[in-house]
Structures are given as structure tokens and as C-alpha cells.
Amino acid sequence: MKNNNVKKRLSSDAVILDRYLSTYNRCKNRKKALEDRRQSLLAEFESPLKFKGMNGMPKGGGTSVGCAALSYELDDINTRIDEKIKELERTYVEINNTIDFLADNSTERAILEYKYIDSMSWNTICEKENLTRTPATQYWRKGLYELLEYAKVQQIVKDYAKKIDCEMEG
User: Fold this and answer.
1) 10 Å Cβ neighbour count for 77?
2) CA–CA gap between residue 167 and residue 89 (Å, rounded)
3) What is the rounded average pLDDT for all residues in the chain?
4) How far apart are CA 108 and CA 117, in angstroms?
5) By CB neighbour count within 10 A (0-12 exposed, 13-18 middle, 19+ buried), where does 155 fall?
6) 3-state secondary structure 89-145
7) Rg (the chain; Cα; Å)
8) Where is 64: in which H helix or E strand?
9) 50 neighbors 64 (Cβ within 8 angstroms)
10) What is the pLDDT of residues 96-118, one digit of tens each?
């Protein structure tokens, strides 16, 4: 690893690239949160809202769900999950296309894929690559800087920087 940048603080472009590459994990986390919320709502449908209807007949009537608002919320969450899945697919392709600039069998590529696509912890990455934390981090940094050498990646960084600036303003 001859790149001098692997031990220094990340440049602003490298930080933005790191944030950009992390978008896939953020999408996965958001999808998981929505799925958890859906499960919670389904649990609400199944237990505390059921009641025995009283129709004057012995042994009572049937069971009925008492809150229509939950069904609307559940429908909204299902729609958001579907949208998040489509966004996840698009984001995966974009992130993967970016990482594809690195050599197929390089350690840098493997570490970036583990980190940004597989959401692995540094401990797991180090274990898989049989590295300690310092060299693993150096390969990660080197991978970021190698990606930044490509004009296409530089454009992605510029566009993403504008996007996050707009999000902070609005």
C-alpha cells in the first residue's frame, strides 16, 4: 500500500464518497424499521383490539376489529415498504456499479463490498480478510481514494454533495 492517504484523515471528497456508499445500508435499515412497524401493527390487529360482540344471543356473536385507522396505517406502511424495496434495488445497483471500478479480486474491493453492501462490522471484515483493524482500515481508505481517481466517481461525489447540501438547507 503505497498511497500516503491511507493514514491521514479522509479528504472531504472521500467523506462524501463514504456517505454516498453508505446509502444502501441506510435504505436497508429504513426498510427493516418499516417491516418491524408492520409486524407491530399486525400484532395489534391480532390481540388487544378484538372484542366479543354482544348480539343478545347466548355465547355471544363473533369477533370484530375495533380500529379502522390501523388498517390505513398498515396499508401506508406496506406502500412505503414497496417503495423502499424499489429504492433499495436502485441504490444497490448504483453502489455496486461504483465499487465495480475497483479490481475484481482486490482486498480494497472486498472490504468495500463487506462494509457498504453486506453491512459487516469491522471485526467481521477483519476476520473474513484475516487482517487486523489497522491494515483493514488502510485498504478501505485506499479503495476510496482509488475510486476517487475516476471521473465518473468524481461526478457522483459532486452530485451527492449537492444533494446533501440541498437536504440540509431544506
Assistant:
1) 19
2) 22
3) 84
4) 13
5) exposed
6) HHHHHHHHHHHCCCCCCCHHHHHHHHHHCCCCCHHHHHHHHCCCHHHHHHHHHHHHH
7) 24
8) strand 63-65
9) yes
10) 999 999 999 999 999 999 999 99
Cα distances (angstroms) measured from residue 90 to each of 43, 84, 85: 31, 10, 9
Q: Which of 116, 93, 92, 113 shows the shortest CA–CA distance to 104?
A: 113
Residue 85: predicted pLDDT: 85
Give 142 or 29, the one with higher predicted confidence. 142
For residues 63 and 30, give the distance between their C-alpha atoms in angstroms, rounded to a whole number: 34
pTM for the model: 0.74
Task: For residue 52, list its beta bridge partners.
Answer: 63
Bridge partner residues of 64 (DSSP): 51
Residues contacting 170, CB < 8 A, separation 6+? none
Burial class (CB in 10 A: 0-12, 13-18, 19+), 70: middle
Query: Phi and psi dihedrals of 64, rounded to 5?
Result: -145, 145
